[in-house]
Amino acid sequence: MEHDDISVGLDIGTTKIVAMIGRRNEYGKIELLGIGKAKSLGVHRGVVNNITQTIQSIQMAVDEAIAVSGIKITEAVVGIAGQHIRSLQHSDYITRPNSEDVICDEDLEKLEKQVYKLVMLPGEEIIHVLPQEFKVDGQAEITEPVGMYGGRLEANFHVVVGQVSSIRNVGRCIKSAGLNLAGITLEPLASAEAVLSNEEKEAGVALIDIGGGTTDLAIFKNGIIRHTAVIPFGGNVITEDIKEGCSIIEKQAELLKTKFGSAWPGENKENEIVSIPGLRGRDPKEITLKNLSKIIHARVLEIIEQVFLEIKNYGHEEPKKKLIAGIVLTGGGAELKHIKQLVEYITGMDTRIGYPNENLAGDSDESLSSPQYATAVGLLMNGLNKIHKNRIKISQQVKVESSKNEKEDQEEVEKVEEPKKSIFEKWGDKFRDFLDNAE
Questions:
Q1: How many C-beta atoms surround the C-beta of residue 202 within 10 A?
Q2: Distance from CA of residue 341 to its chain's centroid?
Q3: Do 136 and 145 form a contact (C-beta atoms < 8 A)?
Q4: Which of 79, 240, 292, 420 is placed for a possible disulfide with 187 were both Cys, Cβ 3.0 to 4.6 Å?
Q5: What is the rounded radius of gyration, in angstroms, for the C-alpha atoms of the chain?
Q6: What's the pLDDT tens digit per position in 27-85?
Q7: What is the phi/psi pair of residue 186, to 5°?
Q8: What domains are defined for the chain?
Q9: Residue 35 in contact with residue 65, Cβ under 8 Å?
């Protein structure tokens, strides 16, 4: 088996850490070779708050994935989330020295580099700069300016910003767990890659990833990412409330939520009761399912309303910005009974649950197509796409090098090498340098 084709996605969540090893089969689907999970102990609301425990959890997950697959892992694509993430819109322009030349990738890069120089709040750093649409000499709504003539090139950007220290801590954990960073991606973007179709992104869709510690939102319209947000609570606040509302321990609360919980209080009859064993020698507790679903309902309502506010802020009510494909729910929280109905009821938007199985090979384990693995699958896809791009780059270089004139070769190779890097890869490179310097 060639190890070049293999990539690893590492999802460092608040509840669990998942390492996924996979490759593409001949049909372009993802074949999972190994998966490892560990309980995440050092992460709170998507942010690492205990380095030692996080390193241990990462190592456990990675070791399990290695044991299952028999493949040695050296690097991974990692997701970044957490309450410190925010996004903003920014437009910028460059004036080109010669408007007689056509616009090339270098011009786009120059414009993008300029955005990276934006002054952020102290302790913040730009994670992604995602171009929305371009204007050339005042002509608007251009999606691909390369090859056009023009003196002034401007663009609107969606800029994602995060806290330097939080990002550094993640990098530190990866390094200490014996891995290299193959790349780093905003988690809602990874989940979107795994569960959304191109048609949905085109029509307009909001992806809501309800994790343990955070709820991530990514909005697409006309095939382009338009808005991202991280809301600092997820499934764990529901468990917390059940724990306090029913005076039971966390483990029992989590079980109650997943086994008997529903987001829709009208579903349960008054007399449905669950009996929970008491602590050592104490009487068992009886809890009515109606009460349980009332507690869950209140919390889910809060989460969804916050997300809906973000969707409204993006401008969903404007006809041009309408999200025709509605909402896709994913993440562990999407497995809560009747949550789809509740979201449809609150937002009035079509809703479906997003499973990452469309991208997985047919013989994959059923349990892995659960929404809670969407981010890990997306990160894995991200890594595999990178490998694929590098392949193309190398094969193009080889073709160019075997061409006649050596001087032309040089120019061509340089041309081929640069533009092929995606935004994420460039950022990943910058980030790796940044980490190395920070050591």
A1: 15
A2: 24
A3: yes
A4: 79
A5: 24
A6: 888 899 999 999 998 999 889 999 999 999 999 999 999 999 999 889 999 998 888 88
A7: -65, 130
A8: 235-299 (3.30.420.40)
A9: yes
